[in-house]
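Hi V.,

You were right to ask for the full record rather than a summary. Here it is.
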Amino acid sequence: MGKYFKYAIGEILLVVIGILLALQINNWNEQRKLEQQEANYYCKIKEDIISDLLNIQRSTESLDERQQTTKRLLTNLLKIQDDKSVILKDYLGTLRSYTFVPSKSAITDITSSGKLENLKNEDLKNTILNYYSEQEYALKIIEANQNNLSGKVFDYEDYSSFGIQETPLYRDIYGVELQSLLTSADWHKDPNDKLFIHLKNHMNMTMILCQREKQLITDIERKAKALRDSLQTYCIPND
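Predicted structure:
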């Protein structure tokens, strides 16, 4: 009886130990999956950051070009040109530049799916959240400035007199006959003319706000590079 009892106890102990080992292995596997998921999130965020840096470079180059075009137009305007086309050929180039649009697919997926708690590194998580928060704040300033500047485009009281139809991009769609009927004024020869003054102020503000936008995205770039370097340590690809 005692022999069989000991044998039964031994069998039970082996079963219990087997169950505990299975649970431990399962817990270990689950923990490993969570750690790998966390690392994958860091890798995806890093990919977005790298995309941000490329878009920032493109935006900065575009703003530089826009600023140079604006400077050239403003200089030609203030020198008083006989030929208005010298001014108008640059006008549309002063209105447009590539706007930085951030890549946020990873952080959007993490936050919308409630997986933010899976990022266990609190310092790194706070750095990530601060980056996107400060980025959003900077982009709101840029958007507000762009809206204010765009408003000046629609403040010209007389587009025909200004000569919008004579700009190189739109000139051909009017044709010779319509161009002759839409004769523009010689405002470019009179510094006291309303159109001259408005264009001067418009270009002056464009110079300033382009510079402000470059300052803001340069700050985003600096923080993006720091975050990219921090993520590098924790971004461990799958084996």
